[in-house]
Amino acid sequence: MTFKQKETPHIKPNGVEIAETILLPGDPLRAKFIVETYLEDAVQFNSVRNMLGYTGTYRGKKISVMGTGMGMPSMSLYSWELIHVFGVKNLIRIGTCGALQDHMNLYDIVFAMGASTDSNYVHQYNLPGQYSNIASFALLEKAKKTADQKGLPVHVGNVLTSDIFYNADETAMEKWRKMGILCAEMETAGLYMNAAYAGVNALTILTVSDHIIRNEQTTPEERQLAFTNMMEIALELA
Predict the structure, then answer these.
(1) Domain tally for the chain?
(2) Do the domain assignments include residue 13?
(3) Are strands 21-25 and 109-117 parallel, antiparallel or unpaired?
(4) Residue set of the binding site for phosphate
(5) Residues marked as binding for a purine D-ribonucleoside?
(6) Residue 6 belongs to some domain of the structure
(7) What is the CATH number for 52?
(8) Residue 5 binned pLDDT confidence (cut-offs 50, 70, 90)
(9) In this model, does residue 157 exceed pLDDT 80?
């Protein structure tokens, strides 16, 4: 399925170019914050359903930023259209997660090398077995080098992309934790599947906003200020 027109029911750029590299925060207001804080000559390319999207430059390189909403269905819809309709080649999710491991703390940065999931999104591909959702190594390697240069410690490993925020099974997270899952979030596996199927690059960079096991949380005000390290790493991938 492809669209002939350079717009979709969900993204209407009105002639504004969408860059080959795009940052994808879940919250569209975080996209606006990134633009106002970091980008030059930014132009808005989307406002449909208030899912704000912008294209500008960062250190002379063209880059776009757009919100994706919450959950795999929303992320998968927007990332599919960005890839197949608008030609995006590098998709970097920047979001929040709930830590599961004892050695992790609030505001830690996580690179999702892999994304396990309780979703059945993969069924559409009719694969004859289980599929492992993994990041683009090129983006992951560059992100790790950038973090090292900035002196920012990061966790690299497997995350959980869950369809369930309020789980009736109170033992679920402990089971994932025992398998070494670093943290839980709700979008990455869908992004990685879309990217793999299309042959493009994807990476998720997360900041720990709460610790599920220790029942620790950050405030919305703290998150806006503390998440800039994650944003600055992602911007260097353009």
Answers:
(1) 1
(2) no
(3) unpaired
(4) 26, 30, 49, 93-96
(5) 10, 185-187, 209-210
(6) no
(7) 3.40.50.1580
(8) low
(9) yes
